[in-house]
Amino acid sequence: MPYCIGLTGGIGSGKSSAAQSFKKLGAGVIDVDDISHDLTKPGGAGMAPIQLAFGADFVAKDGSLDRVKMRELVFKHPEQKIRLETILHPLISQQALSLMHSSKDTYVLLVVPLLFEKNTYLQYLQRIAVVDCSEKTQIERTMKRSHLTESSVREIMAAQISRSERLAHADDILNNDEGPEQLNQQVLALHLRYIDLANKLTQ
Questions:
Q1: Alpha carbon distance 172, 70 (integer Å)
Q2: What integer best gives the mean pLDDT of the chain?
Q3: Angle of CA points 179, 30, 184, to nearest 5°
Q4: Is domain 1-27+107-203 in CATH 3.40.50.300, yes or no?
Q5: What separation in angstroms does the CA of 195 have from each of 106, 115, 130, 181?
Q6: Element (H or E) spanning 31, and its range?
Q7: Residue 128 vs residues 97, 131, 189: alpha-carbon distances, Å
Q8: pLDDT at residue 159, rounded to an integer
Q9: Above 90 in pLDDT, residue 155?
Q10: Nearest CA-CA partner of 103 in 197, 21, 5, 184
């Protein structure tokens, strides 16, 4: 398995932007959200067990997961969220670990929004990078991107570990309050550092 770094951050922090910057520089990027979407697309490996557990009402006309309907259900009934996670999380982790093991990249960046909350991947990581910004920025970005109310965003944030806890677990911190240029400069510095660390590991 190559040198592995976990990338995480709170909602609206800019994890996806940071991951794209790393990818452009040549890092191997594995995003568990992308895997989840792949599993719940038409014909995805997660759709048959989801339909069996929740019924055909939660399958869209094209055969993919009806995300709006499922989101409404899990917000109203937290136990249904656990039920969905019981189906998807083993499939996601199996695929993520398979991609990590088979990667030929100098290092792999594993993007996991709930890295600390779920504790599934920590044992496989050499370092952890956290994308961070102020809570005000998180709320503004998420409201703009996802068209959610402030109270809805705060509910999501409350379900994640606190910003201070997340930062306490970080080996590296990417500050994303100022925008793309500042973030890209930090990504480049870390990319070079990770290549150096990965190369030292194989020497």
A1: 35
A2: 94
A3: 20
A4: yes
A5: 7, 22, 18, 21
A6: strand 28-31
A7: 16, 10, 15
A8: 84
A9: no
A10: 5
SS3 of 129, please?
strand
pTM of structure: 0.91
Q: For residue 156, what pLDDT is reported? A: 87
Rounded distance, CA 138 to CA 13, Å?
6
Q: Burial of 181 by CB count in 10 Å (0-12 exposed, 13-18 middle, 19+ buried)?
A: exposed
- CA 179 distance to own-chain centroid: 20
User: Any idea where the domains of the chain sit in the sequence?
Assistant: 1-27+107-203, 35-104
Using one digit for the tens of pLDDT, what is the confidence trace for 166-201?
Answer: 999 999 999 999 989 999 999 999 999 999 999 988
Nearest to 186 by CA among 14, 10, 11: 14
Distance CA 194, CA 44 (A): 33
Q: How confident is the model at residue 51 (pLDDT cuts 50, 70, 90)?
A: very high
